[in-house]
Amino acid sequence: MPGTRVLLVEDDAVIRRATELALRRERFAVSVACDGLEGLAAFESGRPEVVVLDVMLPGLDGVSVCRLLRAESEVPVVMLSARGDPVDVVRGLEAGADDYLSKPFEVAVLVARLRAVLRRASSARSGSSTLQSGHLSVDLDGAEVRADGEVVALTPTEYRLLVDLLEHAGRVRSREALLQSVWGYDWTGDPRLVDVHVQRLRAKIGRESIETVRGMGYKAVRA
Amino acid sequence: MSLRWQISLAFAIGAGAMAAIFGVLVYERTAADRAAHARALESQRAQIAASLFASTGRLALGASVNDPSAPAALRRAVDDGQVASFLRTRDPAVVWAAAPLKGGIGGIFVNTSFAGEEQALAALRRVLLEIGLLSTLVIAAGGSMFARRLSTRLRRAAIVAGRIGEQDPAARIGMHGRDEVAALANTVDRMADSLQQRVERERRFAADVAHELRTPVTGLLAASALLEDGEAAGMVRDRARRLARLVEDLLEISRLEAGAESSQLRTVDLAALARSVCADHPVSIAGPGGQALSDPRRLARIISNLVDNSCTHGRPPVIVEIADRSVRVSDSGPGFSKEMLAHGTERFASASSARSAGTGLGLAIAAAQAGVIGAKLTLANNACGGAVVTISLPDLHKTAMSEPWPPEQCSPAC
């Protein structure tokens, strides 16, 4: 995908510059910011298609930036966690991040994660063009979800997760299966990605739509 | 001999000796008094009988003149003109006395049985012996009780000190009191505190170093990826990658050792997990397969580390054997050294020459991850000399199902 606009918010000059150059090589159109406020401003002016956000930023930290971005946009966000601290990761995901990478990471891995996130955003579906389940209806062509007729704004990852669960309605989907089909991870995927995204989905479309099957995974309730 | 018995015995010996000395003194004194009293009484009787005999010519008070059955010593004393007495303590016990006759040879002899007195003294001996034995027993029992308290406290201190040294560095004796045992216990506690603090500081230091290295290493990794391909660039990239791996491993083991990790249990198909982990390795998967309730991600991490280890240090074929609640990774290399068998799961246990390909933390991480999921890691060498590492998973099915689930998973609706 040539020219995909990426916003990279990172305070360390070497990581920022090297990652910027590496992403340019991969033909991303990269804009950079070195702190949270600058990142927000760059988002307003550049309208990137994907944001790479460091958790530890001077001033306004990555988690707060992510929350502010989510308030007005469903843009995919990949967090860079400097700590690998479980609490940090969960806070980032709860603030609305789609995925995260722990430092130190390889640029090739970051590129793979970005492509996976962008694929979710642009995934076109074939076959039946609407999914209907209880009070939910999903227009697969327009990637639009309605609950009781009201449009629900979902991030691409939340949308893909919901579609996956609805396509397998009534059947249990293990966290591992969801990590593979939605995020594109092998066994290295973090199951908390699924847990936090399911929580966020439930908050948007209603708790009762997705059941937890303990020790197994999640299940969309068959209407 | 335990301290308790030593103290009880010392109490018993002390009490016994006291009772013996006291008993002997009391008895000797009493016996001497009684004998002196009887002899004085008998002497008086002999004198009265002698003066009655002198004035009336009659023998009174059972006296006799120059009794031939009288003891020879008494007869000699009377011959010397003295009033004398004599005590025979047995066969039969009798007290004799004699008074000289005025102007004649020999004297007046009287005697009385001393058997009654001897019986009384025998009774006294018995009583003293009984009192001695009883007081010895009572004092020994008291000593034993006192010693039990002491030895219980000491034993408790010893057990806790052992636990501190082995598996529970946070254990403390916590003994109150002002005696030496409490002082010893408190000293051990303080020592454990300072040891724990030191260990904690070292652990934190390793974690801090790794944490501080993260940002520069990330930068290095990103920058090295930009280099034009070439031999030098390859070397830099390779080393940067290895440095990054080391930092990640150090952070992981620091987190594990901090004990803040918890496991997310699911039913895991062990063979399927092993297949997905080993997809990129030349490894064959064998065994009947099996299922276990465990944390798939941690288990995958352990298997991955073990397989990495076998592929790097061992020789093919590397075999992953799956059975019910156990996974065994073996290779056909030279196996573990004696040192590795003993300390292989400690950080940087392998000799630095053998580490050229890894970070030296793989087995330590595997063991620490195993600890989080309650599994056990066993290092061994097989019959052909190859290294064998066995992961034994606990049977969590019974216990886990009866425990409440974490709130997030407690009901289907939440």
In short:
Helices cover 43% and strands 23% of the residues of chain A.
Tell me what the structure shows.
The complex is a heterodimer of chains A (223) and B (414). By secondary structure, chain A is α/β, with parallel strands linked by helices. Chain A has two domains: 4-122, Response regulator (Rossmann fold, 3-Layer(aba) Sandwich); 130-220, Arc Repressor Mutant, subunit A (Orthogonal Bundle). Helices cover 43% and strands 23% of the residues of chain A. Chain A is built from eight helices and twelve strands. In chain A, a hairpin with a 3-residue loop joins strand 11 and strand 12 (217-220). In chain A, helix 6 crosses helix 8 and helix 7 packs across helix 8 (191-205). The model of chain A has no long low-confidence stretch (mean pLDDT 85). Chain B has ten helices and eleven strands. Chain B has three domains: 3-138, no CATH class; 186-257, Signal transduction histidine kinase, dimerisation/phosphotransfer (DHp) domain (Helix Hairpins), CATH 1.10.287; 266-402, Heat Shock Protein 90 (2-Layer Sandwich), CATH 3.30.565. The radius of gyration of chain B is 47 Å and the shape is rod-shaped. The two termini of chain B are 63 Å apart. With 414 residues, chain B is an alpha+beta fold. Chain B has helices spanning 3-56, 72-79, 115-166, 180-224, 231-257, 270-277, 296-313, 338-343, 362-372, 396-402; strands spanning 64-65, 84-88, 94-100, 107-113, 266-269, 283-286, 291-294, 318-323, 326-330, 376-381, 387-392. At the A-B interface, helix 1, helix 8 and strand 11 of A face helix 4, helix 5, helix 6 and helix 7 of B.
Features:
heterodimer, A: 223 residues, alpha/beta, Rossmann fold, Arc Repressor Mutant, subunit A, five-stranded parallel sheet, four-stranded antiparallel sheet, 12 strands, 23% strand, B: 414 residues, alpha+beta, Helix Hairpins, Heat Shock Protein 90, 3 domains, five-stranded mixed sheet, 10 helices, 14% strand, disordered C terminus
